[in-house]
Amino acid sequence: MNLDIDSTLQKMANELAEYCQKKAIIDPVVVGIHSGGVWVAERILANLQTKESLATLDITFYRDDFSRMGLHPKVKQTVLPSTEGRHVILVDDVLMSGRTIRAAMNEVFDFGRPASITLAILYDLDQAELPIKADVTGETVHLKEKQRLKLSGPLPLTVSLLGGNL
């Protein structure tokens, strides 16, 4: 398995721009989920027609396992304008169980009722535990048991496989 992150990012950006054009999504709020989702969103933002700056979410306090994990020592800031009536593009690096996305959508709704939420994922691991599916996916990756992908960045932005070889 050889993951070329740059070509995957470009493919994802192109598909997202086409998706927005097809759905007539103009001037969306692009929201990256800390940390990897922010790094991905920064790279694809230039391909989208929006006047908004990149918005960011830290979903730490919205996670369904927060009480089991306790306070995460690296809480980041959420920077998000009102989402009332806006088209939101939610961006993350890896979709595994779907729990991060569920938490992110809960937080987005705390800022207003969006007209729509589009999910853009760099790598879908096809291991959903919740009925959450990306609208735009850079690449679907099938891993062996106990393997995980890890995005490192922001510069350079790299992807590595934990628990095995790429």
Topology readout:
Elements: H1 5-22, E1 29-33, H2 36-44, E2 55-57, H3 66-69, E3 87-95, H4 99-109, E4 116-124, E5 136-140, E6 148-152, E7 158-162
Parallel strand pairs: 1-2, 1-3, 3-4, 4-5
Antiparallel strand pairs: 6-7
Mean pLDDT: 90
Strand content: 15-25%
Work out the helix count. 4
Structural class: alpha/beta
Oligomer: single chain
Q: Specify the biggest β-sheet.
A: 5 strands, parallel
Please estimate the helix content: 25-40%
What is the alpha-carbon Rg in Å?
Answer: 15 Å
Order the strands across the largest sheet as they lie in space.
Answer: 2-1-3-4-5
CATH class category: Alpha Beta
Task: Please explain how this structure is put together.
With 166 residues, the chain is an alpha/beta fold. The protein is built from four helices and seven strands, in the order H-E-H-E-H-E-H-E-E-E-E. The protein has helices at residues 5-22, 36-44, 66-69, 99-109, and strands at 29-33, 55-57, 87-95, 116-124, 136-140, 148-152, 158-162. Strands 2-1-3-4-5 form a five-stranded parallel β-sheet. The mean pLDDT is 90.
Question: In brief, what are we looking at here?
Answer:
The protein has 166 residues and is of the alpha/beta class. It has helices at residues 5-22, 36-44, 66-69, 99-109; strands at residues 29-33, 55-57, 87-95, 116-124, 136-140, 148-152, 158-162. The protein starts with a helix and ends with a strand.
